[in-house]
Amino acid sequence: MTAEHPRDISFTVPIVVERDGDGYHAYCPPLRGLHTCGATEEEAVGAAVDAAGLHLQSMLRHHEPIPLQVCVDAGDTTCHAPRGKGVHRVNQELSVAIA
Fold first, then answer.
1. What average pLDDT does the segment 33-45 reach?
2. Which of helix, strand or coil describes residue 74?
3. Sign (positive/negative) of CA torsion 92, 16, 88, 49?
4. What's the structural domain count of the chain?
5. pLDDT band per the 50, 70, 90 thresholds, residue 71
6. Which ranges in 1-99 belong to alpha helices (H)?
7. CATH, residue 13
8. Which residue of 5, 30, 66, 72 has the lowest C-beta tally within 10 Å?
9. DSSP letter, residue 5
C-alpha cells in the first residue's frame, strides 16, 4: 500500500458527555488523555470525534495496540463510564485513513 492510496478503517468509539458549567465536557475513556469541551453538546462531541480520529491514526502509524473498547467495524462498545444526571454515552462511528 502506498501513500497515494490510503485505506480507511472504520471505528466505533465510546464518548462520554457531561454538562460542565455553561458548556460541555466530552471524553473517550479508552483513549487516555482525550478530553475536549464545547459550548454545546454537539460541539464537544465533534471535537472528541476529531481528536479520537487523530489519536487512532497516530496509534496505527506507530503500531500501537488499539484499546479493546474501541471497536473496528462494529457498532457495539463496552464503556465503563459514570452514570448520572447530565452524563451520558454516545457510540460514535469514525473513519481513519491510513497509508
1. 95
2. coil
3. negative
4. 1
5. low
6. 41-61
7. 3.30.160.250
8. 5
9. S
Residue with cell 465510546: 14
What confidence score (pLDDT) does residue 2 get?
Answer: 47
The rounded distance, in Å, linking the Cα atoms of 1 and 97 is 12
What H or E segment, with its residue span, contains residue 8?
strand 7-20
Name residues whose C-beta falls within 8 Å of residue 84's C-beta, 6 or more positions apart in sequence. Answer: none
Query: Of 67, 74, 65, 66, which Cα lies nearest the Cα of 93?
Result: 74
Instruction: Provide the domain limits for residue 17.
Output: 7-98
* pLDDT at res. 99: 60
Q: Answer yes or no: is 1 within a domain.
A: no
Please tell me the distance from the alpha carbon of residue 30 to that of residue 98, in angstroms, as a whole number: 20
C-alpha cell at 18: 457531561
- 16 inside domain: yes
In a domain, 21, yes or no: yes
In a domain, 2, yes or no: no
